[in-house]
Structures are given as C-alpha cells and as structure tokens.
From TrEMBL:
Quaternary structure and interacting proteins, as annotated: Homodimer.
Residues involved in substrate binding: 323, 360, 364, 392, 421
Active-site feature positions: 391
Family annotation (SUPFAM superfamilies): Alanine racemase C-terminal domain-like, PLP-binding barrel
Residue span, Orn/DAP/Arg decarboxylase 2 C-terminal domain: 332-419
Keywords: Amino-acid biosynthesis, Decarboxylase, Lyase, Lysine biosynthesis, Pyridoxal phosphate
Reaction(s) catalysed by this chain's protein: meso-2,6-diaminopimelate + H(+) = L-lysine + CO2
Cofactors (names): pyridoxal 5'-phosphate
UniProt-listed GO biological process terms: lysine biosynthetic process via diaminopimelate
Protein name: Diaminopimelate decarboxylase
Gene: lysA
Positions of the Orn/DAP/Arg decarboxylase 2 N-terminal domain: 72-327
EC number: 4.1.1.20
Database matches in InterPro entries: Ala_racemase/Decarboxylase_C, DAP_deCOOHase_LysA, De-COase2_C, De-COase2_CS, De-COase2_N, De-COase2_pyr-phos_BS, Orn/DAP/Arg_de-COase, PLP-binding_barrel
High-level lineage: Bacteria, Bacillati, Actinomycetota, Actinomycetes, Kitasatosporales
Amino acid sequence: MSRSAHPAGPRHADVLPEGHYAAPPADLNVLDPKVWARSVARGEDGVVAVAGLPVTRLAEEFGTPAYILDEADFRARARAWRTAFGPDADVFYAGKAFLSRAVVRWLAEEGLNLDVCSGGELATALSAGMPADRIAFHGNNKSAAEIERAVRAGVGRIVLDSFQEIVRVAHIAQSLGKRQRVQIRVTVGVEAHTHEFIATAHEDQKFGIPLAGGQAAEAVRRALRLDGIELIGIHSHIGSQIFDMSGFEVAAHRVVGLLKDIRDEHGVELPEIDLGGGLGIAYTSDDDPREPHEIAEALTEIVTRECRGAGLRTPRISVEPGRAIVGPTAFTLYEVGTVKPLDGLRTYVSVDGGMSDNIRTALYDAEYSVALVSRASDAEPMLVRVVGKHCESGDIVVKDAFLPADLAPGDLIAVPATGAYCRSMASNYNHALRPPVVAVEDGEARVIVRRETEEDLLRLDVG
Ligand code: LLP
C-alpha cells in the first residue's frame, strides 16, 4: 500500500511555474454575468448590489460570512426548467444542493417537485407544505423509520437502491395497508464528467443496481412480484457538473433497453424514466453551461428516439437538477481579515469563513471566482489565493484568482456560484458558526436560514 502525503498539504502548496496562470481579466471591476446571480450589479459608487441592495448594507445588517441568495433568480431558473420540460415531464429539484423551508415554498409555487434523500430533508419538505405526492425519496440506505415516514406521508415515489430495499419498502408499505409507487435506480455503466465520460470502473460505487449481469432485470422481476409496491419506472443518475450530453445519451439508450426487456418478459411498459441531475454550471468564466431548454430538447429527443427504436411508447421523463437551479443564484460574502504577500509566489487573502462554509475546494479541487465587492479599484491585479480561518493548510476557498493589489483588511469580497453544496455541506469545524442564508428580492432582504450562535453549539454539548 502506498503512503502519500495528505492531499491538503503539499498538493495545495504546489508552486506552479510562471506563465501557468491565465492572464488577469482586463478589468477586475467587471462582474461576469455567467457566474453571478442575475440581479447582481456594481453600482456607480463602485459597491456591488444585489436586487438593489448594496453588499456593504447587507454585511452591516447580517454580518459576514453570509450566503446571499437572489430569490428572483432562483425562481426564474426553477421556472425555466419547468417551462423547458413542459407539462408532460416532471422536474424534481434536488434538495441536497440546498434546502430550506423558503426554498420549498418557492418550488411548490413554481410547479416543481422535490427530491429528498434523508429524513431531515423529508421533514423540511413536509413542514413547508410541499404536497407529499410531489416528493421523491432517494438514498442508498434509508432507515426503516425513514421509509415508514415517507410511506405514511404518501410520497409520490421512493427510489429503490438495492435488493434489500425492494423487500423492505414493500413490507413496510404492505404492513401500513398501502401500495407505494417506486422506481428502481440502476447503474448504466457510464460515469459522466465535464468533458468526457468514462466507461470503466463506473459500477464500482455504492449507488443503484447494475444493469450488467442482468442484476437490474432481476430487481425488476422481484419488484413486480410484491404487493406493497407499484413499479412505475427506472431511474439513472450519471454524475455531477456535466456539460456534455453524450453521457445521457448512452444512459438513456441503456435504460430504454431495460424497458424493452421488461416489456418482452413481463408484458408491462413502465410509464416513467428518470434521468437524474448533474447538469453543470459556470463557476468561472471558462465554463459554458447549456440552457434548460437546450437540455430539455436534447433529453426528450434522445428518449423519444430510443423508445421509437425499441417500439415502446415514450415514457414520462423526469429530471433532478439541483446545482443548475440554485448554484448560480447565491454568492458568499466575506470580510478580508489579513493580506499576506509571499514574495515571488502569491498573496494569501484570509477571510472570516473558509472550509466550514465551502468544503468543495478542499474536497473536489473545485474552481471558484472572486471579486472585490465593497468598492471598485483601479489597482493592478495581484495573484491571490483566498483562504479561510481554519487550522488547516487545505482550508482554501479560491485556489487561484486575481484581486486588486490595494486589497486591504476590512474590504468585502464575494465568491459567486456558491448556492449549491456550500451551505448544505457546511460544518462546524473548529466550532465555526455556520453562516446565514439571506434571500434578497426587489430591494428587500430577509434571513431564510439564520446564523448559528454559540448557544446553538453549546446546546448540543450536554456536558
Ligand atoms: N439526483 C440524484 C439521484 C443525485 O444523486 C444528485 C446528486 C442529484 C440528482 C443532483 O445533482 P446536481 O444536479 O445538483 O448536480 N457534493 C457534490 C455533488 C454531489 C451530488 C450528489 N448527487 C458537489 O458539491 O459537487
């Protein structure tokens, strides 16, 4: 077994040769609309505002760090997905990206359904009034208590992830005198990435039942035999931050192949197919995501074509975008605490948050952008690494970016595209207090998830 250094150490400290970095943007004051929420703009006084509210005012009122979420943008993106797929398909927002009761209400109002993957997410959805039949319940190891709660609530579907779960859900539903609608999640042998898809080692992961070796077909056989469940479709989710539709194409081809086998063996045409989520967003100006209508057209075309080829009626399609809806709608607002130039290397800018509010850089080597938002500056660009305040050298928020050279403690900087998987993966590392989520709309700001307090921390510590 090899011994390697902790990746958060040497790897992040690597010094890249001169000329490696992209050239700084021509004007650091310009905000690229690709990565910023739609109502973000720099005012004439140089201060960035969201929906008309200057970030300086937001910082004063709500403190930093804080996630600032553009409600109109969230609603617009949710609506764009809904409209793109139309009445004959369903859009399930993936709550794992970010979930709160306000978000659940916006989704309900905009006509979206909701994918939850834990008892906690289910409780949030139900407590905010999402109709249970618009909820899909996911997870590779749902507890019996979670399943019972979901069945009792009447969730629209439970996505089955293993042979044991087929029996478990059927048994629980039957003992409650119910017949639960279910889908079976299959692994199609495609793992999609941003610019390529790899057809190896993909089945060596914990989710779903492989199509390979007839395992998914056997799962279907068993599910169709049980009274407590009604099998309504097949589910496939191929990955995250995907820009290339070819992975979906292969996945749809293989899922439709299974639907055809099911029809041939059982004389049943399953009415639904779920292609999961995973559609990419722009974290930096280099990313070029597709619009929901392009994705909807491509997916519908792929499934329709595959079904026609197989002599099947086209099933109802559903998708589960999380990041693509909420990701671009929020940014994290930080105050600069220290600015430390390391001669010949780069300048380390420490902010008042870090890996506790954005673990994605440390965990996935994710790329982010950053901008000075409390004022404009004509100073020269300087190469920076934005780091947090945690006791860990891998506590990096933005690996490489340019900020104006006159950056100073007390300035506010913001990292865009942090709406997805930042608050939802936030931690209390070093007993950090998780930041609030502030929703801004039409000149009004309100806290939808409040900042944690020391009392919150101490309440859990029962001595
Ligand atoms: N549906 C299923 C079954 C999923 O497993 C996921 C994500 C989604 C939908 C939503 O995927 P999205 O459209 O948001 O990419 N923490 C990672 C992402 C993990 C995604 C897990 N499943 C990150 O920060 O990139």
